[in-house]
Amino acid sequence: MGDDFVRLVSQANPAFRQYQPAGNGYPPSSSYHTHNDSSQLDPFFDDEDDVPDSAFGRPAAMMSKESGLPLASSAAAPAGHGSVAPDDDILQDWDEVPASNSQSYTGSSAFPGPSGNASKSSKSTPRRRKWKWPWKKEEVQTGERVIAMNSAAANSEYCSNYVSTSKYNGITFLPKFLFEQFSKYANIFFLFTVCIQQIPGVSPTNRYTTIAPLGFVLLASAIKESQEDIKRHQSDSELNARLAKILQPDGTFKDTKWKDIQVGDVVRMENDDFIPADVVLISSSEPEGFCYIETSNLDGETNLKIKQASPQTSHLTSPHLVTALHGALRSEHPNNSLYTFEGTLELTGDMGVPKMIPLGPDQMLLRGAQIRNTPWSYGLVVFTGHDTKLMRNATAAPIKRTAVERQVNVQIVFLFILLLALSIGSTIGSSIRSWFFADAQWYLMESSSISGRAKGFIEDILTFIILYNNLIPISLIVTMEIVKFQQAQLINFDLDMYYAKTDTPALCRTSSLVEELGQIEYVFSDKTGTLTCNEMEFRCCSIAGVAYADVVDESKRDENGKDGWRTFAEMKSILEGSANPFVDVAPQPGDEREVIHEFLTLLAVCHTVIPENRDGKMHYQASSPDEAALVAGAELLGYQFTARKPKSVFVNIMGASYEYEILNVCEFNSTRKRMSTIVRGPDGKLRVFCKGADTVILERLSENQPYTEKTLLHLEDYATDGLRTLCIASRELSEQEYKQWSIVYNEAATTINGRGEALDKAAELIEKDLFLLGATAIEDKLQDGVPDTIHTLQMAGIKVWVLTGDRQETAINIGMSCRLISESMNLVIVNEETSHETHDFINKRLAAIKNQRSTGELEDLALIIDGKSLTYALEKEISKTFLELAVMCKAVICCRVSPLQKALVVKLVKKNSKALLLAIGDGANDVSMIQAAHVGVGISGLEGLQAARSADVAISQFRYLKKLLLVHGAWSYQRLSKLILYSFYKNITLYMTQFWYSFFNNFSGQIAYESWTLSLYNVAFTLLPPFVIGIFDQFVSARVLDRYPQLYMLGQKNVFFTRTAFWLWVGNALYHSLLLFGFSVILFWGDLKQANGYDSGHWVWGTMLYLAVLLTVLGKAALVSDLWTKYTVAAIPGSFIFTMLFLPLYAVVAPAIGFSKEYLNIVPRLWTDGVFYFMLLLVPILCLSRDLAWKYYRRTYKPETYHIAQEIQKYNIPDYRPRQEQFQKAIKKVRAVQRMRRNRGFAFSQTENAARQDQARLIRAYDTTKTDARPSGY
Question: Which residues pair with 799 in a beta bridge?
């Protein structure tokens, strides 16, 4: 073969045009993408015939399967590296051509020959993590990703497999933390105060009285934040340090940490291993390269998904075969689509001919999934670390700030404006004194120049700002942080939310969000693993008009014994009436034993389950948990499915093994809603076995069915109990009919276009005139307490939306069984194919509902929308209309949604409404939704579930959500509201007395109190009451909150923390401060003379006023406390007793050591004076009498709902509502029986594709009788 021909091929073939001269790197420039230009094609190629269909449509030239063209050994490496010497080829990409063509290829425009500057190093370099600035947007990658096989150096440009879900790292902690802290206006204000306190001659107080508390506040917050993030780092480190077996060039496997895995590595994954990165399946131990994975970590579903290696690579079952691979993998760039993948594996054959092997989602194994029932498999790593599809669906841990925090920020701004107004007012007063009365006060020697007065004006403003700065309580921020942390601890230690089965307590990871738990209006929940356990259980069946169950309630047994329910044990005794069911005469409709035999045989034969014998026990691998439950049910009743061969199955009936030949399988899909198999039994007779939804089976029955009416009654009973039902039917076939039908079926199976439809039509011909054997009922086990929890949340005014990847029928069924959808609800089902249709449908339904409601007719609605329609509904033009419709509905279920769609739905509601949202889920596919919501809750307790790691709160059961929101949430919100308002009140009360005093001290900036006593007001003397209110106060008990969920609406309406409440507390503080200051001045008018004739002086008056203020604010704390515990007693009366003991001690010690001179000799003068005690009793009582009168008036004449609940709790008034609830339950039961459910879901297969016949191909590939013949993979 000459050079000219090779050159001609390389220039003409568009598939090879993808390769550029190696020095230019990848991706190829647009000048090389010429495969669509027909004028460039070479006459050697017929493009119309040779390009095969692939799993994802007609492939481009890059994806063609077989080019059949030779290439010489000196071709360029297609991984974007420089030209390579033939003896030291980094990629080892092209094999030598045969000896007859041994002349080296010198190069062409597309493939240059060897050059001298080849790279000599083929050792793998240590992987560096690329630094990316937080604000830098990710570049949109174009072209394709090219991965060299068996060459670490060529793939070094791709990111490492290191994964981080933490909020901070060593570099970002300080800037991120400080940004978060100084987004709180209080901290900015105190930082400003700290700065001006350092100016000499400006501060009337000690220069360190603000910097110390602010430093303490920041330090406490830093410790809390770092503690929470260290936990995230620990779980990341644990994940990154897991080990995987990586194939080495010498054909051995080396245990490598996950974080060190590189793109292009070949990894060996064994049974029960988690997949360490996104890998393409090369081969496995199973026939035809099948591999089972469980994706519970991704989507919460425990049913197994089937993946299959490409037929061109499935034979590579030993390490040396894999290391001998040369070539490259071209794939799409990293993206967030979990269910798609496009790529081409280009392998070089013995003749140096590249093979183009198309790859699709069937070959893609995603990080986080788990290998199941597959002893081993090989995978080529395509995406690592943050490039994996799982991590692409995750968003960075956001900095969440609560509504209460934002409100506090606004209130701090108001208080700052008030402070500024007071400071400017006081400065103006000071200026009037210095400008107009300077002559009268000549002894102050004040400056009379304009510049001096201007300087004095500015200094005075700063002085008064420092003087009044504690109108904004510095202790508030740190108090809130500590109280929230303690509230989180109360959640963690709550035994009602401890799940003993998995030894998992509740865990509040982000304590700063606890009060938001009391204001939630929407709950977005995943279904599988969150609402359900995803454990299917065979509960009941109806055979020949008789209902059977494992345990039968006495109320269901009929007195005559004819029509009543029977147990499975009774069914077995009927079957054991005859030894061999195959020697008897053909079954008559009335022969009950024969019908039972046929029914159980169908369950054991008509399915796509693969059996596996482990430790003497049968384990069933099924793509749907329903299928496995039915086969397990048949085994329970004595019909054990034991082995599968490509063309038959073996069933052990009553100790004897029988072989059933599987002739054809008509698969389930969501249109057909049924599945059939044509089998030849041990008796040689042909039968059609069919199982499916009741609606489709009943249409295909022959006339004069003996059991239809009774079976329908049983179906209604099962549906009422929320079970998933299925009808079972069969008929005998004649050989002639089967031969005729077989021809039609084979034609349909070989159809190129529209194969799925053709197969469906062929199945219709045989699935007719069936005989109804009975029905089955499977329980998709809900987690304990789910229906009650959802019902209670709805009563509390919380709307529950379920976002699930399941199909529509299944989701509706679960919605009904968990009381999300009630029988009385009208279902609005959006199931459109195009954007225009979706838009029209939503608009029409919205208009109809508005018209109906305008007439005063209100009915409960439930919205059900599938993933495709949701894609269109989330478009900008329709999204608002869709949201308006959804908000009108009491329940919303979104089916077949991707993880990103879940997050988009949450963001849509978050953006367009002021409501607070909570998202709850258990899988990695729920992480983006959890992080998008205001509060994220993860279901923990199962191994490897990632949602709990990214969540703000982790609980182990959905039912705990009730107590988390209705009790802990309501308490936290009410406690924190009271704490904030009280903190503002106590500071304003004290510091406004300082303002009133300015009118008496000539606006000189003189302070009324000793400066360290002033600082100790927040730090010691009034420190405990806010803590006690914030941690232990209960406005009503947990029992009352559980009994009356409607009390939760107080939080949703923000009753306790309104703007009005804030200004009422501020007004009350001003009133108290005026009374306190006024009375102290009246008592001291002209100064108070002591018994020895001396004047009492400034510090006696100041200290007396200080203690009167303290007693007043402590009395107010006592008035607003709803629950008195030993801690309340220690905090409120205890604080005053502590102050009365500490202050005399301090007043003696401080002057003695020279620390503070103001209190010199004050103790004998003050603590022995009767006026002092008179004032302490009189003034606080006078202040608080108005508060007490107002409290009495409110509770007696204008009570709130919680006031009434408090009365019920105090006097233990009995509640007569249970009778009413029982009555309502009875009505619902009657309605449910009257109206048979229209939608009963049954999921045969999670990976349906009618045209590909996946399940049929799968079962034809297996021979479980030859398990020892599997390759070992070594």
Answer: 522
pLDDT of 1274 higher than 80: no
Copy the structure tokens of residue 214: 């602010």
Give per-residue pLDDT as tens, 715-765. Answer: 888 877 768 888 999 999 999 999 999 999 988 888 877 888 888 899 999
Distance CA 263, CA 327 (A): 14
Q: Could you check whether the bond before residue 112 is cis, i.e. omega within 30 degrees of 0?
A: no
**Which ranges in 1121-1216 belong to alpha helices (H)?**
1126-1152, 1163-1166, 1170-1197, 1201-1211
CB 93 within 8 A of CB 328: yes
| DSSP annotation of 579 | S
Q: Of 624, 623, 625, 659, give the one whose Cα is nearest residue 641.
A: 659
**Can you list the alpha helix ranges (DSSP code H) found in 614-772?**
625-636, 694-698, 708-720, 735-749, 755-766
Detail the DSSP E strand segments found in 602-739.
610-614, 617-621, 639-645, 648-653, 656-666, 674-680, 686-692, 724-733
**Which of 317, 338, 326, 459 is closest to 390 using CA atoms?**
338
pLDDT at position 7: 42
Which tokens sit at 783?
């987690």
Contacts of 784 (CB under 8 A, 6+ apart): 957, 959
Mean predicted lDDT score pLDDT of the chain: 80
Residue 920: pLDDT band (50, 70, 90) is: very high
Q: Which residues pair with 377 in a beta bridge?
A: 269, 284
Coarse DSSP helix, strand, coil percentages of the chain, rounded to the nearest 5 percent = 45, 15, 35
Catalytic option among 526, 626, 694, 922: 526
Are 1005 and 460 in contact by the 8 Å Cβ rule? The answer is: yes
φ and ψ at residue 559, rounded to 5 degrees = -65, -35
Within a 10 A sphere around the Cβ of 849, how many other Cβ atoms? 18
- Report the chain's C-alpha Rg in angstroms: 39
- Closest to 1113 in 3D by CA, of 1008, 984, 975: 984
pLDDT, one tens digit per residue, over 538-574 is 989 999 999 999 888 777 776 555 567 888 888 888 8
Asked if the model's pLDDT at residue 1110 lies above 60, the reply is: yes
- Which residue carries 């993808």 as its tokens? 18
- Segment of 29-43, 329-343, 1251-1265 carrying the highest mean pLDDT: 329-343
Is residue 70 within 8 A of residue 326, CB to CB? The reply is no
pTM of the model: 0.74
Q: Is 526 a catalytic residue?
A: yes
Find where tokens 């103006």 sit. Answer: 428
Q: Which pLDDT tens digit goes with each residue over 342-384?
A: 899 988 766 667 888 899 888 999 998 889 878 899 999 999 9
**Is 1248 in contact with 670 (CB distance < 8 Å)?**
yes
The residue among 779, 814, 781 whose CA lies nearest residue 539 is: 779
H or E stretch covering 534: strand 532-543
DSSP letters for 844-901: HHHHHHHHHHHTT----EEEEEEHHHHHHHTSHHHHHHHHHHHHHSSEEEEES--HHH
**β-bridge pairing 278-284 and 364-365:** antiparallel
Q: Band of the pLDDT at 98, cuts 50, 70, 90?
A: very low
